[in-house]
Amino acid sequence: MTSNLVIPTSTVRAIDEASPDAAVVLLLRHSARGPLPPDGPGDETPLLEEGVSLARTLGERIGSRLRTARSSPVLRCMQTADAVVDGSGSPVHPAPDTALGGPGVYVLDGRVAWEVWRRRGHEAVMEALVRGVALPGLADPRAAARRLVAHMLATADARPGVHVFVTHDSLVTATAAHALGVPLGPLDWPLFLEALVLVADGAMVQAEYRGRRRPLAWG
User: Fold this and answer.
1) Three-state secondary structure string covering the chain
2) In this structure, is residue 132 part of a structural domain?
3) Which end of the chain offers a freer environment for a tag, N or C, measured as fewer CB atoms within 10 Å?
4) Other residues' Cβ atoms within 10 Å of the Cβ of residue 137
5) Is residue 36 part of a domain?
6) Is residue 80 within 8 Å of residue 105, measured between CB atoms?
7) What total number of domains does the chain contain?
8) The pTM is what?
9) Which long-range contacts does 91-95 make (Cβ < 8 Å, 24+ apart)?
């Protein structure tokens, strides 16, 4: 099932094309994991060995340009951040960040939100997040996307280099949809190690996801 895994082309391109003078923020889905349990969010589901190796390879590609590594506290995300840092060889310490998960900026009440997720299903909740519909236990998605982007940019603090924020598919999809101002459906959900890319160069911040590139939708 995982033998053909590769780092997504869009992530590789964002790293390779990054200006040395820009702060490049990657809101990155974690690396490859096994199946999640049917009766819970699977916070203790680890990466596959191939997932660890793939994240380490991504770190090697970033190399000494790595400036920040923050992660959802969920196991598979922290393992991804650890492997990226290990591969980069940079003296960066991966830090847990609850804005990225556990519960993340889109969740107000984890118990209520999980019940909504369980009852409605992942695809329906993702559609609501992308459309900007606030569900029980969840924050207003548009406001949450702004908060997360502002948080990442403040953490990067305009320092040239690559700033990695490891999270989950729902956060990448919803934040990309609102940062770009475009609807995203199931075919647009991120692959393992696929990222919403924010490039801060001076006062301009460009957002990019799967070839769609434009200034932040909210200016």
Assistant:
1) CCCCCCCCHHHHHHHHCCCCCCEEEEEEECCCECCCCCCCCCCCCCECHHHHHHHHHHHHHHHHHEEEEEECCCHHHHHHHHHHHHHHCCCCCCEECCCCCCCCCCECCHHHHHHHHHHHCHHHHHHHHHHCCCCCCECCHHHHHHHHHHHHHHHHCCCCEEEEEEECHHHHHHHHHHHHCCCCCHHHCCCCCCEEEEEEECCEEEEEECCEEEECCCC
2) no
3) C
4) 18
5) yes
6) no
7) 1
8) 0.95
9) 92/66, 92/67, 92/68, 93/69, 94/69, 94/70, 95/69, 95/70, 95/71
19-53 per-position pLDDT tens digit: 889 999 999 999 999 887 777 666 778 999 999 99
Q: Among 33-37, 95-99, 167-171, 214-218, name the one with the lowest average pLDDT.
A: 33-37
The sign of the dihedral angle between the CA atoms of 56, 61, 65, 68 is negative
| Single-letter amino acid, residue 160 | P
**CATH number of the structural domain spanning residue 163:** 3.40.50.1240
Q: Is residue 198 part of a domain?
A: yes
- Distance CA(61)–CA(86), nearest Å, equals 12
Residue 64 lies in a domain: yes
